[in-house]
Design a protein that fits this description.
- The structure is a single chain.
- 34% of the residues lie in helices and 21% in strands.
- The protein has two domains: 154 residues, Leucine Aminopeptidase, subunit E, domain 1; 314 residues, Aminopeptidase.
- The radius of gyration is 24 Å and the shape is elongated.
- The chain contains 15 helices and 21 strands.
- It has 499 residues and is α/β, with parallel strands linked by helices.
- The model has no long low-confidence stretch (mean pLDDT 97).
- Helix 4 packs parallel to helix 5 and helix 13 crosses helix 15.
- Strand 4 and strand 5 form a beta hairpin.
- The strands form four sheets. Strands 8, 9, 10, 11, 12, 15, 16, 17 and 19 form a nine-stranded mixed beta sheet that branches. Strands 1, 2, 3, 4, 5, 6 and 7 form a seven-stranded mixed beta sheet that branches. The chain has a three-stranded mixed beta sheet with strand order 13-14-18.
- Bound molecules: ligand BES, manganese (II) ion and zinc ion.
- Ligand BES binds next to helix 12.
Amino acid sequence: MTVPKFGLTDHTAETIRDGKADVIVIGTISEGDTVALADGAAAVDEAFDGELLSALKALGATGAADEVVRVPTFGRVSASAVYATGLGKVNGDAPTAEQVRRACGAAGRALSGTKRALVTLSQIDLRAAVEGIALGAYQFTEYKSDPGEAPVKNVDFVSPADGTGKEHKATLKAATAVATAVVTARDLVNTAPNDLYPASFAERAKKLAEEAGLSVEVLDERQLKRKGYGGILGVGGGSSRQPRLVRLHYKPSKPKAKVALVGKGITFDTGGISLKPAAKMQEMTSDMAGAAAQLATAVLAAELNYPIEVIAYLPLAENMPSGTAYRPGDVLRMYGGKTVEVLNTDAEGRLILADAIARAGEDDPDYLIETSTLTGAQLVALGNRTPGIMGSDEFRDRVADIAQRTGEGGWPMPLPDELRSDLDSKLADIANVTGQRWGGMLAAGIFLREFVKDDLPWVHIDVAGPAYSDAVWGYTGKGGTGVPVRTLAAVLADIAENG
Ligand code: BES
Ligand code: MN
Ligand code: ZN
């Protein structure tokens, strides 16, 4: 899917009265037990001779988040309806970026079937409004014979009062690019696992990346074997669809830093011989969300000409039980030579990631950012909307701060040393699981740390819960969410600016 066609417009009474929009979107705020109009709505209210607010009250509007109230205009303006979308309660002077993003997300969904909309919430925060509308409008109808009402086609955003036209244009461009990257990641996650398997994922990655000017290398099973990628081969061996390792390289002329990206690409996770229970197993179609996010982010870095070199690794494999599958008890020789005793074939993500992380270290990056749907324990610890962020202390805290600002959330988590000895193996250098349940998310992070080059600032972002949604809220629908693309994009932008 693509994002709607976006434009900017100046805020004049004429745009409101005689514009081309079919629907005008305004924001509402919860104030005590009543509703108020948000910034940007005043001009619309004027066209209603100040009666918009009483109409909204009569319709039961409260201004709560995820509330969209439709008001017919009865010809007072050329648009046929005003959609009032709730920002919730405002603490302080203005709604937060996330409140704007969420309200615009709900509006973006409600706008399905509309040809052209005019959005006024951009006067509060243009960037958040664009992201919210684009992500709220997202639909994945690839497999539907009758896709229903199409997403809104054209959206004009009223320019904010401060800043120049040039700045607004740049903001619109960057926000549209980021939203497009999120959409790319969502599309990949939502594609069924019979269509998206290692080789077909690699093909799609190659096409997307080459179009954006990145160089692409894909290792197939023969090359993986020759180079000693024991983790990827071990995990992928149970499937008739053989594994791949994709490497994407974006190199601007004078890069300020070099960043390695690594994302887990298990195109389906049955658990392998340590088979998962049937309930909800279909959700393991999202077990490649990390690889999808890194692919989208590497492409985005090129599209926005970030002055940093980016090398992304996508280890791709399908975890299946079969006569050729790896088993509990196997010892794998990983890329770089370390050996791993497999105690549970369902702890497969860390095995393919270990190979990719070891390989990424050879490029001598300044930072390494890995993300994966790695553990059910992430959901136990942080719920299904908050990524767990682990890694080297300073960089971890920097990434967690940035994650908070994007609205994707994300919380710093420790890698306690005492868990390392739980990974000791009698047979090999390390085991792939501990013998106990506690701190499962952290133990996985500790396992990954073993493969990170010494002194390299790195993070591991566990998005097992946040990458996939079974509920509809704000700018998130059911299925792939695209998390953590906005965090990754913001971290790269921060490195591009501050080194
Ligand atoms: N892909 C799963 C983790 C997962 C669980 C993602 C729920 C999304 C939602 C991962 O490969 C896995 O199976 N992890 C095991 C590890 C365990 C065997 C140590 C888990 O979390 O149960
Ligand atoms: Mn698993
Ligand atoms: Zn998995």
